[in-house]
Amino acid sequence: MKPTFSESMELVGLSTNWNNFSDEQKELINTLVENGQTHLFSGWDEPGTNDEAKKEFLESLEKINGNYPGGLVGYISNARKLLAESKAGANPFEGLTPEQPEKVDLTSFTDEFKKYEKIGADYFDKTGVVLVAGGLGERLGYNGIKIDIAVEVLEETTYLKHYADNLLAMQARSESKRPVPFIIMVSQDTGPKTIQSLEENNYFGLQKEQVHILQQELVPAISDNDGALALKEKYELILKPHGHGDIHMLLHTSGVAAKLAAEGIEYFMFIQDTNGPSFNTLPAAIGASVANGYDFNSLAIVRRPGEAVGGLAKLVGNGKEFTLNVEYNQLDPLLRATINPEGDVADETGFSPFPGNCNTLVIKTDSYVRILEATQGIIAEFVNPKYTDETKTAFKKPTRLETMMQDLPKLFGESEKVGVTIFDRMWSFSPNKNNVTDAAAKYASGGPADASATAENDFYAAGRARLEAAGMKVVEGEEIKILGVPFTVGPKVILRPSFAMTLEEGASKISGGSISDQATLIIDGADVSLENVELSGKTGLVVKACSGAKVTVKGKFENDGFELVELGADADVPEYLKIRGYRFENRGAQTFEFTEPGEYVVEA
Ligand code: UGB
């Protein structure tokens, strides 16, 4: 194969290296030069100098070309189009006015809530769970991968284990016992540690085959409006993350979405890396999707104005209407330009009129696979260059195309239905995103802290809510501040998914009883039941039962339980404790563990 570009001084080096390239590389170079990327090959050294760097550069181009549907040419052409629109100042919401979306309100445990949970529970073996875990969590400042952080430190359960436990509980409850597919999107940054964590923990009891790891790749940065790919130095591109919307492309290009849909998976629930409560909402959210015929169901919370979560709105105008997430940086300008000159402010309820996007999504697989096929999984990319001046001809630093997973409905037609299901915040959305210092500042200025301590706090609060819903008397403890972040001292309640996945199931295993404000209760096991259990003072009670062990717990327990020990900001402790500022010490909590099937009674 011959070069199709004309020889120039600039490309002399490239020509003299030509015979060292494979046919595929030659073809790619020709195509890139034809598409305005001559600068990538400008001033190349003669053969024998920097050959390894040239080889690695061409391999990286080939890899990126293969990863992106439409290849590098497709990426460059998408970039040119989006950059032209950005330069022209195109407003993506031109002519559209935000209105309230179609909503299902599940903020309290009503009969409707229980009805939806019941419907959803029948879909446990028709649901796949998709975890997007390619982000580095720079705001949290944690050195490992976020899914390896403990969501609670009484037993130090990591997010990944907690998610796996929920999958195991789902499949244990389905008639078919079919393994729940678990798709994890990783990146170059998170992939190796994610696999290491799975392997070291024997996949947390899951079968290896039910776990699908999809790796997102970085995309090339772009240095100008013509889509010139940016070089870090000769023979090296600048690469940047493409965003969580990559999950759609990967589910398409890997064939996993189509395969699972063909195997009878009807819904995917998409969850974020450190949102512990996601599975509290799963049964009711799937139920709401099924009952209301939603192709796309965005789980939401009541949003605080200015909060860094998108606002969900029905956008109406230009003869169309569609429900979308308006990202937090776009919401204020849209509101100012349309319905409220004051922008992103509270209404008479004290909150934003638009529900906040938890980025937990329930998507119906048959519409999903259809859209993936039509779009190659490239979902509503956008570009956000920072220009040097108002002529918008140069960028302050190279930009790149990005994509967000919640933007899928941008591709929906009239036949696809989008709904929003609103849950109580504690029950549905308590991400672990901010380091202690930032979290304290956010909390001080009236926003949610969204930190390790608040995530753990809400983990226990959800347990308390389940106990209360089952009729147990729960005395809520006082709220203290640890390094400026709020934390309720108790009771600390963990009802593992093995014990209860729905409110109804919890209620069927708990009768009466009470728990005091500083007590701790941890229950793990499908056949454990609590009969008038009373925990007073700081009492701690832990009951764990293997499958087949039927355990009845009764009576009044009293011991010194677990003590919360505050750690100073400079304490010499592992990072997962440092990011929360406390740990627990066992001062005499009673633990009952049953590892053999049988019938047992635990009595105080
Ligand atoms: N993620 C990836 O897997 N790959 C990537 O390239 C990037 C991220 P962030 P963000 O729920 O609080 C989103 O960075 O993007 C994963 C919504 O857009 O924590 O600022 C990453 O590992 C916003 O509408 O969030 O904001 C993590 O699991 C709002 O709802 C997830 O993607 C906000 O989340 C989110 O990444 C929120």
UniProtKB/TrEMBL annotation:
The GO terms this record gives for MF are: UTP:glucose-1-phosphate uridylyltransferase activity
Q: Which UniProt keywords apply?
A: Nucleotidyltransferase, Transferase
- Higher taxonomy: Bacteria, Pseudomonadati, Kiritimatiellota, Kiritimatiellia, Kiritimatiellales
Keyword Nucleotidyltransferase on entry: yes
Checking InterPro entries in the record gives:
Nucleotide-diphossugar_trans, UDP-sugar_pyrophosphorylase, UDPGP_fam
Q: What is its EC number?
A: 2.7.7.64
Q: What is this protein called?
A: UTP-monosaccharide-1-phosphate uridylyltransferase
Q: Which reaction does it catalyse?
A: a monosaccharide 1-phosphate + UTP + H(+) = a UDP-monosaccharide + diphosphate
Cofactor section: Mn(2+); Mg(2+)
Record family assignment? Belongs to the USP family.
Q: Which organism is it from?
A: Pontiella agarivorans
